[in-house]
Design goal:
About 40% of the residues lie in helices and about 15% in strands. It is an alpha/beta fold.
Length: about 300
């Protein structure tokens, strides 16, 4: 196959999931697994136990949900109504805040919040909710913060790092005192059997999933270094499965049009503060090379 033909094939770099998942075991489990015939309640408990072992936390601190964005909204809503007597009061030396929601890594820039920054937010909040859907791609997590404070709630999604987009499973890691209120709210998102089986199969194939995450991390670093060599974009260090970059020469709209003509698609953040930014998925060295080549070709017209 010629290089020109390859360059005409669509290259999708606008995703925010692990491109090497779901794992092969998930596909097999969804085709023919004895657990597909088991009660939802049993599978629910099995998955809670498996997640608890994975993170070395009590089973009672794991609450399951489905699609991550809806789940987060439900968790925040339930915590806003939660009795404050069961939540540690904020540090009186700091301005108190109610339920604070943050993302680490950030879904636009990929920036991860450092431990001491997290400590400051937790101490000044009655409840801190951390969206950690991209945390498995990072080398750091807010789990130590959860263990240190009793007002920190972490949320993760198997849609991102495990590729369960068609069978979404999310979970909250919560202090035991908050778990009943969140669990009651999560009942509205009852998980189908197939979703539970897919999640269980993912953890059973953890060696494969872990290796795929390492591949994403490696390509993310390679992508960042290649972008850093260019003088028309400024990449930002990322702890997620993508690299965000600011267009510093020319207009973003012109670059996007050129990439589209070259059959290359990147993600365009819609936040007002990111009006010159693009977000690029870490896929492969070949994909990165094609993106870099197209960007350099565009710059020749500047």
């Amino acid at each position: 196959m010629s290089q020109s033909r390859r360059s005409n094939e669509p290259l999708l770099l606008d995703g925010a999931t692990n491109p090497f998942t779901p794992s092969p075991r998930v596909r097999l489990a969804l085709e023919n697994d004895f657990r597909l015939q088991q009660p939802v309640s049993r599978l629910h408990l099995l998955l809670q136990s498996r997640i608890a072992r994975h993170h070395n936390i009590p089973v009672g601190s794991v609450v399951l949900g489905s699609e991550i964005d809806k789940f987060i909204d439900q968790v925040v809503s339930s915590l806003a109504e939660h009795p404050r007597s069961s939540v540690r009061p904020p540090d009186n030396r700091l301005k108190p805040r109610g339920v604070v929601r943050i993302s680490s890594p950030d879904p636009v820039t990929g920036r991860a919040i450092g431990h001491w920054e997290g400590v400051g937010i937790a101490r000044s909040s009655q409840v801190l909710v951390v969206d950690e859907r991209f945390a498995p791609f990072s080398h750091q997590s807010m789990l130590p913060l959860y263990r240190e404070f009793d007002n920190v709630v972490l949320l993760r999604s198997m849609e991102t790092w495990a590729g369960l987009v068609d069978h979404p499973v999310s979970y909250a890691i919560v202090p035991k005192l908050m778990a009943p209120a969140i669990d009651e709210s999560a009942q509205a998102q009852e998980l189908p059997v197939s979703n539970l089986v897919a999640a269980l199969a993912t953890f059973e194939d953890w060696r494969y999933v872990k290796a795929s995450i390492e591949r994403v991390r490696s390509e993310r670093l390679h992508l960042f270094r290649q972008l850093r060599k260019l003088n028309m974009v400024r990449p930002m260090p990322s702890a997620a499965c993508f690299v965000a970059a600011e267009v510093t020469r020319g207009e973003r709209a012109d670059l996007l049009a050129f990439l589209q003509a070259a059959s290359v698609t990147v993600h365009v953040p819609d936040q007002r503060s990111a009006n010159q930014m693009i977000r690029i998925a870490a896929l492969s060295k070949g994909a990165t090379a094609r993106l870099i080549e197209a960007t350099i070709d565009w710059s020749k017209s500047l």
